[in-house]
Write a structure and sequence with these properties.
With about 475 residues, this protein is of the alpha/beta class. The protein has helices spanning about 5-10, 15, 20-30, 30-50, 60-75, 100-110, 130-140, 150-160, 185-190, 205-210, 240-250, 275-280, 305-315, 315-320, 325-335, 340-345, 350-355, 360-375, 415-425, 450-460; strands at about 80, 85-90, 115-120, 125, 145, 165-170, 175, 180, 195, 215-220, 250-255, 285-290, 300-305, 380-390, 400-410, 430, 430-435, 435-440. It folds into three domains: about 5-75, no CATH class; about 80-90 and about 355-470, Aspartate Aminotransferase, domain 1, CATH 3.90.1150.180; about 100-345, Aspartate Aminotransferase, domain 2. Residues about 465-473 have low confidence and may be disordered. The structure holds pyridoxal-5'-phosphate.
């Protein structure tokens, strides 16, 4: 057919909107459907001008409009099912909040609050006051301050306590943490001068002593997070560093990374110091994340000596890094749970996931296997596998968490194609590909997600309901 003839035969906008698939949508959201219809017709005009020789049937055009409408009305940020087994997955938003924390954030979001209002004396209040008491009680520190994230907490602490002067740190602790947070660069940004001591694998107290001078402002200890030097190694202990700080009259600061507030040794989780243990040993300033092992909202928590926290609270950066009401509400509710460690372990999803036992995980995997095998039939081989989950978030890097997963071996698709199809379902599902298997680790599945996951697998293996697939046919 000739180009001109094809263009002439493209249906008009009104004609398309009469299509039965579009009539209801058009009534519900007319302006949006109109815009998308025009765009789809424009695109086809362009395709014809570029040499396309056939016209889509009106029904196909309607489907294309529907697909684009679906994609346009869906949020970009949306829930996904985490079957990776990484409990604190930074790319998947780290900690899942407890029901109490979620509820508190919703309340704070939808109503006026006493965020900065003292209800007793009717005057301006302090937004941090809602959590300082709890942080003092739980960590044993004299005072506390909360900013946007731990990177911000470190920047603020160094800027307030050591700007224009020197900060001593061991070479073994000059680490980069995921997301390009590099200790030397943050130190440079804060205006303190980095004095590195010791070697990559061994640092002694005398190395710190020899580096002391009139310009020294701070002794800094950094948790190496997801990095470990093993073998022939030596780091100065917290107690030794605190003793040196006291002896020469300098504050000691520790960037702890994860904020571990409850001892889970009886659950086999070892090797991560608690915040209160570091405070008790006399560290003057401790910083940690709200959304790592603490299991709360994204935040940077600073606890420590009253005079030092006061200096930080007055620093202009504090205003720039301040946390919002939803974060404070969720953080307060999360911290409340820690008053009773057993309650914290059960209610805070991060701790609950970390302390699931292997037999319980196996039971859950078996249940999921039955469910999934039932709906998939001959479309895939569904198995059971003993696997290993990770804490993630730079915490417990060497701790192997024995777990169980369900394996999927698709009959028709390749396993990477299946993984891609699962990322396009609604909600998207993320698993782990290992050789020709897709592994779905049950440790990170939340209550009720099993059914959703089974539906997503059917969708993905069927080529799915096209509505959920990106791009036009
Ligand atoms: C994770 C981490 C940070 C950064 O914390 P965010 O809350 O992600 O900003 C800083 N220091 C250490 C040691 C960490 O593990």
């Amino acid at each position: 057919m000739e180009q001109k003839e094809l263009l002439r035969q493209l249906p008009a906008v009104d004609q398309l909107l009469q299509q039965s698939r579009l009539r209801d949508l058009s009534q519900a959201d007319h302006q949006m459907i109109l815009t998308i219809t025009r765009r789809v017709l424009d695109d086809w005009r362009q395709r014809i001008k570029n040499g396309a020789t056939t016209l889509p049937a009106p029904d196909q055009l309607a489907r294309e409009i529907e697909t684009r409408y679906g994609a346009a009305s869906r949020s970009s940020l949306r829930p996904v099912i985490n079957a990776t087994g990484v409990v604190l997955h930074t790319n998947l938003g780290r900690a899942v909040l407890s029901p109490a924390a979620r509820e508190a954030a919703v309340q704070a979001a939808g109503r006026y609050t006493n965020l900065e209002f003292d209800l007793e004396n009717g005057q301006r209040g302090n937004r941090y006051s809602h959590v300082t008491g709890l942080l003092q009680e739980l960590t044993g520190a004299e005072d506390a301050l909360v900013v946007n994230n731990n990177a911000a907490a470190v920047l603020l602490a160094l800027s307030s306590l050591a700007r224009g002067r020197e900060t001593i740190i061991s070479r073994g602790q000059l680490v980069e943490i995921g997301g390009s947070f590099r200790i030397p660069e943050v130190m440079a940004q804060s205006g303190t001068r980095l004095v590195e001591v010791g070697t990559t694998n061994k640092t002694y107290l005398r190395d710190y002593e020899q580096a002391l001078g009139p310009e020294t402002a701070l002794l800094l200890k950094v948790h190496p997070s997801n990095y470990r030097i093993q073998g022939f190694t030596r780091e100065v202990t917290t107690a030794e560093l605190v003793e040196l700080g006291r002896r020469v009259g300098l504050p000691v600061m520790e960037d702890l990374g994860s904020g571990f507030l409850c001892d889970l040794e009886s659950h086999g989780i070892t090797g991560e110091p608690t915040v209160q243990a570091e405070v008790e040993q006399g560290v003057d300033v401790v910083t940690f994340s709200g959304d790592k092992l603490l299991g709360g909202p994204q935040a940077g928590i600073i606890v420590g000596r009253r005079d030092l926290v006061a200096v930080m609270a007055r620093h202009p950066l504090t205003r720039a890094l301040r946390v919002d009401k939803m974060t404070l509400a969720a953080l307060e509710a999360t911290l409340q749970a820690y008053r009773n460690p057993d309650r914290a372990r059960q209610e805070i999803p991060t701790l609950a996931a970390l302390t699931l036992t292997a037999p319980e995980l196996r039971r859950r995997a078996e249940q999921l296997q039955v469910l999934v095998a039932g709906v998939l039939g001959t479309r895939a081989r569904v198995g059971l596998i003993a696997t290993t989950s990770q804490a993630g978030g730079g915490a417990l890097p060497l701790t192997e968490l024995p777990s169980w997963g369900v394996t999927i071996q698709p009959a028709q698709l390749g396993v990477t194609e299946l993984a891609l199809a699962l990322r396009r379902t609604d909600p998207p599902v993320l698993g782990r590909v290992q050789e020709d298997l897709l592994i779905l680790d049950v440790r990170t599945l939340l209550p009720g997600e099993g059914e959703e996951l089974a539906r997503a697998l059917v969708q993905a293996l069927e080529g799915g309901d096209k509505r959920y697939f990106q791009g036009s046919p």
